[in-house]
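Interim report, section 4.2 (structural modelling).
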Amino acid sequence: MIESYGNINPVLAVLIHALIPLTIILVYALVAIWGERKVAGFIQDRLGPHRVGGWHGWAQSIADLLKLIQKEDIVPKDASRFLFKFAPFMMFAASYAAFAVLPFSSWYIGSMIDIGVFYLIAITSVLTLSVIMAGWASNNKWSLLGGMRSAAQLVSYEVPTIATVLTVIVVSGSLNLMTVTEMQSGNDILGFLPNWFIFQNPFLIIAFGIFFISILVESHRVPFDLPESESELVAGYQTEYSGMRWAMFMLAEYADMLLLSLLGVTLFFGGWNSPFGSFMSGPAWGFFWFLLKGFMLVFVMMWIRWTLPRYRVDQLMHICWGILIPATFVNLILVALWEVVF
Amino acid sequence: MEFTAILFYVFAILTIGSASIMVFSKNIVHSAFALMFTLIGVAAIYVLLYADFLAATQLLVYVGGILILILFGVMLTSQESAKLNFKTVTVNVVPASILSVTALVLLTYVFTTTQWASRNLETPQETVEILGTMLMSDYLLPFIIAGVLLLIAIIGSILMATRLNSKPTESN
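Predicted structure of the assembly:
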């Protein structure tokens, strides 16, 4: 992959290579935060931000960012200083590091490592640790409660997420997401449907349903945003943060949403493959389709946020342990049986 | 110095430094977070040794699983913002010094007398596939035994938890 940069300095090539996902995340976060407020507005029958920048308030996020940069960086007196300052950066680093194994197009993937999706699952578990770190270091009871809830949430969602990813791995036979995507190219199902995994096997549709619920839990989105629920915990682990450190949390949250949506796209919806076979396909179109499908899933996440109320902690535990985990394992066996029979 | 060598020393210093913070810190939560850096440093050293599967497992099991359970337990049980009265001074000077000197002598002896062989091995291209095949063929029995052991542990813990809940407490 690095060789294709020609004869520029290898260290520089690695840097450029690593900066491509970062650029995408930063631009996406600005658009997505504005988009989320517009979606919220339209769902609640109002207009949303409408003044900054003219056309539908498109510059609102940029104005917010400029405001956040100017804000004072407040550290509470009794906070654990190093951990308090470190937690937001660790959270963003964990979700950014996971982008390394996503194939953005047939030409671009951060790292062709063999363990691909397994690495992604492993590195995102560090994210929860940074929430606990922020919650504990703030020395605030709301923050600590948010951190504890995040830990409880982790042990609930991790099993169904990994098990649904495993169902796809059973079908594909590879952990490398590039190989998984390449297996889904072409339009052969019923003569016109693309060879995406979601169309290949009826039980994978159920697997996608479970996967989508688990990634809602993993990315702390409503109806499972228990670590930060504003109405009971003020803002959970974010309560004591201000300025750019708080902005890092928001950035990490949106990056995490995009990451998990893109993972879902890669596993179930053909990754960078065009839905029209060879029409509009190629390395550049790959970027377009991959991000478009990812943004569609992000949009569904926003839609759900402004539609459903929040679950309680015990209800979340019951959903994950009592319903999702048994369903996933039964579904895993059914997927494997379907693969053996057909 | 090679780039990988620099990386190795960076991660080695991270591992040892955070491990010593973990041992010497009086705050138990600080110790737990220092343990996180130690585990991440060890995972990075695994990556440098081409054991990427082991590194990811280390992250998933130790950092994402066990460490979070440790933190959860510590935060639920400790009071006074997790400051416990640890004795970080040496208590039994004579037995401790005898033990540590013996360990030092043994380790230096082994280190100096071993014939360190350095060979140029081929870089393995696919690690998981070989590992999976080995687990499903040559090491099938230990793999299954480990699985059964974990299942027994899960069933046992569920049994204990449900018994505790169903029994009415005496104070009521």
